[in-house]
Amino acid sequence: MHNPRSSSRIMRRLTTLFPSEFLEEHAEELGVVEREGKLQVPVLVWALVFGFAAGESRTLAGFRRSYNSTADETISPGGFYQRLTPSLVEYLRDLVERGLDEVAVPDAVDADIDRFRDVMIADGTVLRLHEFLSDEFQARHEEQAGAKLHLLHNATDQTIERIDVTNEKTHDSTLFKTGSWLQGRLVLFDLAYFKYRRFALIDENDGYFVSRLKESANPVITAELREWRGRAIPLEGKQIHDVVTDLSRKYIDVEVEAEFKRGQYEGTQSLDTKRFRVVGVRDSDADDYHLYITNLPRDEFLPADLATLYRCRWEVETLFRELKTQYELDEFDTSNPDVVKILLYAALLSLLVSRDLLDLVTEQADDEIVFPPERWAATFRSHAQLILHELGEFLGYSPPPLLERLIEDAQKIHQQRPILQETLATATQPRCES
């Protein structure tokens, strides 16, 4: 039996996250709509969110059908496409940032992070795009196009503090700025951010870091931080990668000295050295070591502690995996750069709304019930159109009669508007604009 009270909880949750009045006022501020325009902005936002989540609707025609099935007045194909502008890109980005402040990302790691003011995770992922976008979104290889999504995730507050979208050739590390904000914070890096100068600046700003050690990085060992009994191989004075294959101990814990270039000052760059700590944790399955470089002190963090802390990075990896597997984030097939960004932010909004509803479901369910993230994502996607329909009723919208909408949606589109047939994320054949 349908329980209207449980349904209204969902609707109130959604409209608290993105109130209609806020959606309308901010759209007017950015010029997304004209003051007297007939476009109903809350419906457009929710049609993008739930249309993207549903999957089958990731075409221009599909998004427009989602809008027309909810709004008081239908919008023509041309009118809909004309709304996909840079101002809408900026608007959706603002909504993502607002949502990131409101929605917590579930904690997947049971690590003691109270020692730090915050634990930050920097990472990026590549999205493959239509080859006709290669000028706007340069890729690493010719005749390809690619965008890169960069995230700075706060694992302590369970929020994402920064999000950037660039072309694929933009290096992750160029978007990470050091400074006084690092004081008391621990930053976890993947190899894309590896740079001795960055590590030195974090240390000099009273921050902390843990990164995997690059294979091409081979610093000199200056001291062993753990004594070994018996005939242990002496490491001091040797380079780490030159000796690591000869070791069989469970852990490596050494101090190293790295040489690097400082930033330019009056047109010149000076060389400098800095001492860091390198830790190795043996992977018995691969008969190899996971090597980490850090400035965390040994008296507070043993090698096993570092490995546990570094696993916090899986939180961001999980987000990227969900975006790519559940929301097919890397299957954009459009030659319009604004549409790429609109779809990217629609995907992120879908993820945020999904996580917000998961939080509500978890609150209402019995304590012993577990909701695996991928199963929840599939459940949310399968109910997306139903949620959109009930949300439209909750907000008081009255769409035109069904027969009228069927006639409008099914009729032949004007031949001068072939772009409206362009398939976005679910296309099987690439197309270009006429």
Can you give me a brief rundown of this structure?
With 434 residues, the protein is of the alpha+beta class. 37% of the residues lie in helices and 18% in strands. A hairpin with a 4-residue loop joins strand 2 and strand 3.
Q: Which helices and strands occur, and which strands form pairs?
A:
Layout: H1 4-17, H2 20-29, H3 41-54, H4 60-68, H5 77-81, H6 86-102, E1 118-129, E2 145-154, E3 159-167, E4 185-189, H7 196-204, E5 208-212, E6 220-224, H8 240-243, E7 251-261, E8 271-283, E9 288-294, H9 303-310, H10 314-325, H11 337-364, H12 373-382, H13 384-394, H14 402-410
Parallel strand pairs: 1-4, 4-5
Antiparallel strand pairs: 1-2, 2-3, 5-9, 6-7, 7-8, 8-9
Helix pairs in contact: 1-11, 1-13, 3-4, 3-11, 3-13, 6-11
